Amino acid sequence: MPLLGDLIEVLESWFDPRWAESWDAVGLVCGDSMEPVRRVLLAVDPVPATVGEAIAAPAQLLLTHHPLLLTPVHGVPADDPKGGLIHRLVRAGCALFVAHTNADVADSGVSDALARRIGLDHLRPLQPLTAPPLDKLVVFVPSTEAGRLIDSLAAAGAGRLGDYERCAWSSEGLGTFVPGAAARPAIGRTGEIETVVETRVEMVVPRGVRTAVLTAMRAAHPYEQVAYDLYPTIAPEIGVGLGRVGQLSTAQPLAEFVDRVAQSLPATAWGVRAAGDPQALIGTVAVCGGSGGSLAELARDAGADALVTADLKHHATLEASVERTGLALVDAGHWSTEAPWLDDVARRLRDHFGAELEVAVSRQPTDPWNVHAPPRRSGAPTE
Ligand SMILES: [Zn+2]
Predict the structure, then answer these.
(1) Residues whose CB is under 5 A from ligand 1 (ion)?
(2) Is the dihedral of CA 139, 144, 145, 148 positive or negative?
C-alpha cells in the first residue's frame, strides 16, 4: 500500500508545483506523508459535500483541483467554514492535496482532458510556458586563470543547466591591447602592444543572479578592465502551458458544436451557452478549463473558430464575439470544464499504483449554479 508521500511524489512529477502561478496555493493542505493511503477521492472543489464523501468512503486522500485556503490564514478554528473542513479531514485521517494552476498547464493537464472530451486532436498549448530566462556571459581571461574564474562564476550561480553545475564552454585565442598612460595593467607595459593567450569562457546566467555573477567575475578576474559580453537569450518553451488549441475531425456549425460540448461534459443545471453566428463553421477550437476568457485574443491569433471556457463576462464577450471578430465564445461552466481532468488523473493513478490503490472520482456536481429557469416563452404575459 503506498504512503501519502509516494502519491505526492508521483503527483508532483505530473503537476510540478513550480508551474503554479505565484498567487496560487498548491500541494499538501493537511495530512501525514508517512501514513498509508488505500483509497483516494478526486473532486474539483474541497467543499462539505466532497469532504463528506471522502470521509464516508473512507478515503485517506482527497485530491482537489481548487485550493481550500487560497488566501493566507493565521489559524484553522473548527467554527470557521474552512477550518471546520480541516478538522473533519484530520479527525478522519484524510489528507487534502491540491493541484491547481500547476495542473492547468501540465501535459496532460486540465485543458488536455477538456479538449479530448470534446473530441479535439493535434493539441498544443495556447499560451506556452517558457523556461526561466537565462543570459549568456562571454568573458575573456588569460588561459592560466580560466579554471579559477569558472569556479568563481559557478559559485555565484552561473553555469547551472538542469541537474548540472559549473557548465562552461571554452576556446583559446589571442587577446591584444595597449595599456594607456593611466592604466595599471596586470600584464604588459604602458604604450606597448601586448598579446596574451586568452580563453573565451561562456556560461549561462539566470537573470536573478546577474549582479552577483558580474561582481564575482570582476573580483576573480586578474585584469583591471574585464572584457565581457552579456547576451539575453530566447527562453525555450517547455512543452506545457495554459489552454489548448486543437482540431475537430470534421468542422460543424456553431449551434451543433455547442450541443456537442453540452453532451460531452458533465451536466450542470444551466447547460452551455455561446456567443457567435450559429451557422459559423467550427473546426479549430481553443479550450481552457475554468476562467479562460482572458485567452480570447490568443485563441483568435491561433486561428481558433471558437473558445470553450467559463466565467465569461458581458462586455468582454460583446467585444470579442458579437462584434464580428470571428471567434465564437462558448461558456460551458467552470466546474464542467475542469471535471474531465479528474477522470484523466484517476486513470493515471490506477495505471501507476495498480490494485494497491482504490481511486474514485466524485460525481457530485459542485457547480454553485444549481437552479435554472428556462427563458420566458415569447408571447407570455409580462405582468
Ligand atoms: Zn478552476
Answers:
(1) 290
(2) positive
| 309 and 176 inside one domain | no
The cell for 107 is 501535459
65-124 pLDDT, tens digit per residue, is 999 999 989 999 999 999 999 999 999 999 999 999 999 999 999 999 999 999 999 999
Phi and psi, residue 252, nearest 5°: -145, 155
Confidence (pTM): 0.83
What pLDDT is attached to residue 380? 65
pLDDT attached to residue 205: 97
At residue 67's C-alpha, the angle toward residues 62 and 69, to 5°, is: 110
**Distance from residue 226's CA to the centre of ligand 1 (Å):** 52
| Residues of the chain with confidence (pLDDT) below 70 | 321-324, 380-383
Shared-domain flag, residues 267 and 297: yes
Residue 138 near residue 199 (C-beta atoms within 8 A): no
Q: Say how far residue 12 (Cα) sits from the centre of its chain.
A: 12
- Alpha-helical runs (H) found in the chain: 4-14, 48-56, 81-92, 101-105, 110-118, 146-155, 210-220, 254-264, 296-301, 314-317, 334-338, 340-353
Query: Is 181 inside a domain boundary?
Result: yes
98 & 9 share domain: yes
Show the domain range for 176.
Answer: 134-232
- Ligand 1 centre to CA of 291 (Å) is 7
376 CA distance to ligand 1 middle (Å): 31
Calculate how far, in angstroms, residue 275's C-alpha sits from the geometric centre of ligand 1: 21
Whole-number pLDDT of residue 178: 95
CA distance 282 to 296: 15
> How do residues 265-300 score in pLDDT, each as one tens digit?
999 999 999 999 999 999 999 999 999 999 999 999
